[in-house]
Write a structure and sequence with these properties.
single chain; 347 residues; alpha+beta; Beta-Lactamase; Heat Shock Protein 90; 2 domains; 5-stranded antiparallel beta sheet; 5-stranded mixed beta sheet; 12 strands; 21% strand; elongated
């Protein structure tokens, strides 16, 4: 623990760590977010300073406590932003907040003589801002991957589905109409503008629409079993996770077989998690090939590594996909997500 927190009158270690964590939480939307002033207030308490200010790259300062000389503080901030180096003026000390080799803002402290205290407080803020930047980058990467996944909608499937619909226009107009509506629902869900998260119930509804169309294309060659317990229907998960896995099971597992086969989709709650499995009794693959697909080092299966990365980004490294397969023994893909996750709400 830093020596400046062990002085007489300073916080005890547990309280100091708790307040440091709160500083990080307040900066969850950056220096200019709604928590900027609250973070300055916590830092002022930690440092026992007369005033603490946090300035963004534009130079505006969010203060906790009245500074001795606001004009001098503003001048210091301008100097630090221009030169990228610490500056001081009497009891005022200003340090640049450097994130990814760029000055993202300035910490201004009034009334603390220990330079080390100010330096370590700046380090605390920099770490919080680095975390914010990483999270924003991860979210943008996930959005980009989702856009890429939409673009991967199988033209082979679209062509076959529309061909079946067209062939039944004269022989069975009612069936053709129903299939066309199903295709519209499929396209709307796969290509429409949605939020980042949906629910298991909505994903299963999209799967059922997709399977109606696939059964029209494959006929008796495709058998389907779906079982999902009510406990997991409201579980949030990233949009467009399950349907690509079902498409892979059919396209790469069953279509190569002359007689087709069966796809089983199951969802259940287990040990605080939602477990969803997509299993086919098709051609399977070598385990090394499955590992390469998950790692994004091989093409062929729609969005497998994409889905896995988005799940791990949303929930952490303990979640994501597990692929169990052997050549000529089918494939089972297991999706594991928590039953609930703070901050993740279906759109």
């Amino acid at each position: 623990m830093p020596t400046w927190l062990r002085r007489e009158g300073r916080a005890d270690p547990i309280t100091a760590l708790s307040v440091a964590r709160q500083v990080s939480a307040h900066l969850g939307e950056g220096l200019r977010g709604p928590g900027g002033r609250a973070a300055a207030r916590r830092l002022r308490w930690l440092l026992r300073a007369r005033a603490v200010g946090l300035a963004g790259p534009e130079g505006t300062i969010e203060w906790s406590g009245p500074p001795t000389d606001p004009a001098a503080a503003l001048e210091l901030v301008g100097s630090v932003l221009n030169r990228g180096k610490s500056a001081s003026d009497g009891d005022l000390a200003a340090r640049p907040l450097v994130v990814d080799h760029e000055v993202a803002g300035v910490l201004v402290v009034d009334g603390v003589g220990a330079a080390k205290a100010v330096r370590e407080a700046a380090w605390l803020v920099e770490n919080a801002l680095e975390r914010v930047r990483l999270e924003l980058s991860e979210r943008e990467a996930a959005r980009s991957e989702l856009r890429a996944l939409r673009a991967e909608m199988s033209p082979h499937f679209v062509y076959n589905a529309l061909t079946v619909i067209a062939s039944s226009v004269r022989s069975d107009p009612e069936l053709s109409r129903e299939l066309l509506l199903d295709f519209a629902d499929y396209a709307r869900y796969s290509l429409g503008r949605h939020g980042e998260y949906t629910t298991v119930a909505d994903e299963f509804e999209a799967i059922e629409t997709y399977l109606v169309l696939q059964r029209a294309v494959m006929g008796d060659r495709l058998q389907v079993q779906i079982r999902v317990v009510p406990d997991v229907l409201a579980v949030p998960l990233p949009y467009l996770v399950l349907q690509p896995l079902v498409e892979n099971a059919i396209r790469h597992g069953l279509e190569p077989l002359r007689d087709g086969g069966t796809v089983q989709v199951q969802g259940e709650a287990r040990d605080g998690d939602c477990m969803i499995s997509i299993e086919d009794d098709g051609v399977g693959m070598e385990p090394d090939a499955a590992a390469a697909l998950l790692a994004g080092k091989a093409g062929g299966r729609v969005g497998l590594s994409n889905v896995d990365r988005r799940l791990r980004t949303a929930y952490g490294p303990w979640y994501g996909l597990v692929v169990e397969t052997e050549r000529d023994a089918g494939t089972r893909v297991l999706v594991r997500v928590p039953l609930s996750q703070p901050g993740i709400v279906p759109s």
